[in-house]
Fold this protein.
Amino acid sequence: MLSFREERLIDVNRNYGLYFDKLYINNQLIFPGDDSGVLKEILPRTSQLKLNYKQNNLTFEFCSSNYSLDSNYLYEYKLENFDTNWIPLSTSTLVYTNLSSGKYVLRLRELGGTREPDHEISLHIQISPPFYFSSYAYAIYVLLAGALFAFAVRFKTKQAELRTSLEYERKEKLRIEELNQIKLSFFTNISHEFRTPLTLIIGQIEYLLQLNRLEPAVYNRLLRIYRNSWHMRDLISELLDFRKQEQGFLKLQVESKDLVAYTKEVYMSFYEYAMNRHINYRFEHLEDKVMAWFDPIQMKKVIFNLLSNAFKYTPEDGTIVVSVRRTLHEIQILVKDTGAGISPESLDKIFDRFYQSGKTSSQFTSGTGIGLSLAKGIVELHKGHIQVESQWGEGSLFTVSLPAGYAHFTDNEIQEVDKAAEMILSDDLPPDLLVPVEEKQPQPEGEEKGNKPTILIVEDNTDLLEMLADVFHPIYHVYTATDGVEGLSLVQQLQPDIVLGDVMMPNMSGKEMCYRIKNSVELSHIPVVLITAQTSVEYAIEGYMYGADDYITKPFHVKLLIARCNNLIKGRKILMERFSRKQEQIVTANAVTEQDKIFIERTMEIIRRNFDNPAFDMNMLASELNMGRSKLYIRLKEVTGFTPNEFTLKLKLDEAMDLLLHHPEYNITDIAYRLGFSSARYFSKCFKDLYGKSPQEIRRTNGKTDKPVVE
């Protein structure tokens, strides 16, 4: 139904002859009832057009039947909501393109001769927006935006929760790592503290085992105590090795050994224990000999830990089987038991450090929780792997798999071991190698009874000091000191044949004492042996860098300690004999080049210039020669066969011989101080060691006399 106004407008249009005649949409003429569906009636009877957003290019043609107007009769139009002003028009066509969606009113009117608006017609146009711009779409957009906002808030909340959780886990991991490091440091420090009393225990037991008056029953009990003491020592070493493994300092020294015989030797360590607990304990192997490359010291810890765990969880009348077998590419060690087994929740954590299953047999302590972790680390260093199969309540099977051959090891890890040295240096030195007390103790070569060498023992632990003094007393003149300062003072006074000192001491450490001895021209020839509880190779290297002649770790074999000290004194005696056979000219056959001769002459000139300088040392000599101390040592050793200290001492004593023979105006004390010796007594001792005669004997042989040196 048309409104009254619209019907009135159509009537006016009819009366005055102004109306819209044709409509083009997108350049297509629109007819009533066509497929476009825009017009239901002819355009003059249409007051409103409803279009979609694609029908936005419109062209209107209009007509006027008023012929009374002059030729200058014009029109003007305006599209409300699009045009701001009326637009003059002299043609009968209106064109609008790319109209936006919305509601418009197209107005058209005639201009009379006075240019005043006359008749007017209008057409309502509504262009629907696309769906994505509709109110429904905006409602959906609002809902989606709300959902996205809620999702974003939830995501941020979850992200914050996850970040908080990760931060908590990180802090918890750091806390656990810090706790583990505290445990490890505690175990390491306790291990160092245990080594000194353990050394005392083992030393005293060794001393008792050397007695021939012991009854067999007492001897056997002492032997068991001795073996268990070394077992305790191995456990302490295990803690220290675990620390080294954690820090990446654990190095392998692999060699080719029969794995069957080696494993059986470890297996036999538990045999008596298995018999006492009525455990069916077996060792199985298909081949009598299986050669494999491994580190025997480290692999022993692996097998020992596996057997210890098997015995820990296997009840009486159970079964433990140790076996060795060879596969196509691997060699395997298997330890199977019928014990309590491992719970499923513990199976993946069994090799974690400090992990201990809460379900442990009440007969045994749970241990430290590092044995299996250490075993896994050692096996992986061998480029092998260790795995476990277990059923709760039925038992466990541990399998250690090692690659065949040695191609997977570096050259530094492979060593050829001399059998005799292997026997001497083994940590499991059998008690039957111990020398009975009643037998004659080995003395340094060349030492007659009553003319024993002198040893200075510097140790702050009084018990260990007394034990070492008792051990060395039969074959040495023993002097003792309780710290480095006192020890250094006694070295300067006594001039002992050898110094045995602990590394860790109050006031002055053993390493500092050793450094001062080795940097003194008067004392540098004295051998220094350091004793320490620190087993790391790095500590041993540091000790040797300070000038130590040997480095012994606690606990030690008494016989091995005596043998090393004897060898050092023997070496010094041989060196002195070599000195005495040297001629005045020290340049050896190695000095074949002119540069070598210039180097030796320059060195001799610097030393002779500083004969009477008490502050002269090897650092000063190296500085004068413009080279490092290490380079000086290597170069002089290559050319002359002497170390810098030996070379300096030889020059001084040769100069002393010349003064004794050709300058009677100098007495022996004058010569000693002239050549930089701190005392005439020390000068006489060095001179006699080199030439076999004292300075007084040289003077008497040469027809001269001198005051005797005050001893």
